[in-house]
Amino acid sequence: MTTTRPRPLAPWDPTAAHRFVTSDGTALHVEDVAPTGGAELTVILLHGWTLDHTEWQPVVHTLTADGAVNRGLRVIRYDHRGHGGSAPAEPGTATIAQLADDLAELIADRVAEGPIVLVGHSMGGATIMAFAERHPELLPRIAGAVFMATTSGGLDKITLGLPRWLSTGVTKAERRVNRRLSKIRRTSLSRRTALMRPALRWLVFGKKPNRRDVADTADQLGRGNPASIAGFRISLGAHERREALAALRDKPTIVLAGGADRLLPLPHARIIADALGAELVIYPDAGHMLNVERTVGVAERIAHVIELAGSREG
Questions:
Q1: Residue 54 and residue 83: Cα distance in Å, rounded?
Q2: pLDDT in tens, the chain (314 residues)
Q3: Strand partners, 118
Q4: CATH number at residue 177
Q5: Domain for residue 61, yes or no?
Q6: The domain containing residue 36 runs over which residues?
Q7: Which of 32, 121, 122, 204 lies at a C-alpha separation of 20 to 30 Å from 221?
Q8: What does DSSP assign to residue 48?
C-alpha cells in the first residue's frame, strides 16, 4: 500500500457538511464514500474521545488508494455528538450508551442492507462494545471488527505511565479541568489549540511524532464542545464492558495497540484480545494515535479483517 497521504481538510464548512439527524434531534456530521453501482461491504470508522472523523483521513486514503472503493467497499465515518462538526450533546446524552444508539440509528438509516465491519479507536472501540451490548438484533449484520488503542474498562486505574503518587495528583487535576469544561458555554476550544500541543504530544504520541500530526490532533480537540467532552470523560470512567465482547467472539476481529501508549497501555488491549480470542498486534514505540503513527500497518490490518469478513459472507 502507498505511504503517501493527504492531510485532513479541516475545519470544514458546517453548512455544506452531510448530516444525519438522530431521533432526539442531534445533527451528526457524516462522510460517506460509496462505489458506483453499490457496495458489497461497508466499513464504519468510529473516532476517539476529543477527536473527530478527520483522524481517519490517512487510513481512508491508504485503504482506498489501490482502488478498494471501486471494488465494492463503502467507507462511512462521522463525528460523535459533541465532537467535530456534529451538534453538542444535549444534557444527559454525553454517554457511551448514547453513542451506541446513535450508531444503531445511523446503520438503520444509511446502511439498510449488506455486511458491516466496525473499526473503533479509543472511545470508538468502547462504542462498539456498547453497541454489541445494547443492539443484539443488529449483530448479524456485523461481519467483523477492529479495536484500536481502546479499553473494555478500568480507566480509574490508569497511571499514564507515572508513579502512582504522581498519577493520583494528575487525576485530581483532570477532574478539576473537566468540571471547568462542563461549565464552558462556548461551542469549542479552537482558540487554545496551540497551548494543547505539548501535553497531547506527551500523552497520546509515541517516539518522534510528526509535528503536523500533533497539531492536527490538537485542532480536533479544539473543535469539540467543552461540556460534551467533559460529559463523555465521566461516561468513559464508568465504562465496563468486557462481557459485551463475547457477542463478537465468533466474528473476524483484531486488536491493535501501541507499545508506548500512556493513555491506554497494553494490559487494556490484552484483556480485549483475550475476551475476543483475537490476534493482538503491538506497534513498538507507537502511542495512542496509531492511525497517524502507523497508518500503513493499521490500514493493512483493517483490510485483512475486511477480506476475512467478505470471504465469510461469500
A1: 11
A2: 444 444 444 444 444 448 899 999 999 999 998 887 778 899 999 999 999 999 999 999 998 876 666 668 999 999 999 999 999 999 999 999 999 999 999 999 999 999 999 999 999 999 999 999 999 999 999 999 999 999 999 887 665 554 453 445 445 555 555 555 555 555 555 556 777 788 899 899 999 999 999 999 999 998 999 889 999 999 999 999 999 999 999 999 999 999 999 999 999 999 999 999 999 999 999 999 999 999 999 999 999 999 999 877 65
A3: 44, 145
A4: 3.40.50.1820
A5: yes
A6: 17-313
A7: 32
A8: P
